[in-house]
Design brief:
Helix content is 39%, strand content 17%. The protein is of the alpha/beta class. A hairpin with a 2-residue loop joins β15 and β16.
Length: 366
Amino acid sequence: MTRLLVAAGGGGDVIGTTLVHHALHGDEPAVVLSYSWERLVVDPVPGPRAERDFAHLRPLTPHLSQITADSSAIAPAGSTLPRLAAELPIILGLLSPYGGVPLLARQITEAAEKYAVDEVTVVDVGGDVFARGDEPTLLSPLPDALVIAACATAGVPAVLRLAGPGLDGEIPEADLLPDMGSDHLTLTGADARGVEHVFDWHPSEASALLAAAAHGLRGGCVVRDTGRPVFLTDASARVHRIAVDRALHRNRLAHALYSGAVDSLHGAEKVSRDVCGFSELQRERDRSLGLAHESWSSRSVNEALDDVDARLRHLRSSNPGARYVTFRCLAEGLGLTGAAAQTLRARLIEQRPAQCAGPLFCLTSP
């Protein structure tokens, strides 16, 4: 049997979705549908990518294209999806939010019909898919809300799997758990082993934290963007099963997109402003303008390595009680991204193996 899954948030959610699929169904074939909606460090062009932004896509259904190892984003756009398609044991389909809820629903329906599945599994790492929309820490509700609205519109039986409550640094675990029920499984290190090699190059933090939690790591971890540590607890390794209807009822943005049958990304952005009071797309545009004036290439890896201890001291002093830092957070704090950040990671693993804790790095030497 082939399983059909939707990585709700784009970015690194493909990794977490593959991890969850393995925990649920082992080595059964999987088709994963995902946006190409990445952090600006990966894709400097704000917003999600459409089919026109890629070369060498493969038709999967009339309205859905497959990303393969031969696909590539057309510059200046960037995407991690082609490399993920090469390194993960999945078929990867490209979701397009530019046609709003109706097009996403059609893509999901066509995939479900092609693979004759009786249920679609929506996977979100962290929990913003289960947000109400008024939480002060909410940053990126739109991709997930569009997926929930599309699943409800498609009419295909669907279930939500919320993995690692709170790990995306948006909705705190304590705010999510009381309403998530007790229907869950707990990930193990064996579930994560099939995706761990991806963290050698992929900057995803939420999926890295999920893999770390599956391996039993516990304690605070400093991450990029939020300015506060994310805490790994026993609940961080859980994958909760929630009815999509419950998510649609709780998520006011998803409900508004569904009831309005919003048929464009521009329209969805307007609904997000109305419901949540902000547009993450506008934040990306503003951030992109700021990045255009920043230079990430002026420092060498050797210079960054010389400053590692000073950076770790700063992180410890500003985040009391934290035990770990993501490699991405450490590298960007030292002024490195992309290939330079990957080299830094490899050098740290070689030089300080005792401080390496799977996809995370310890703030102190053992």
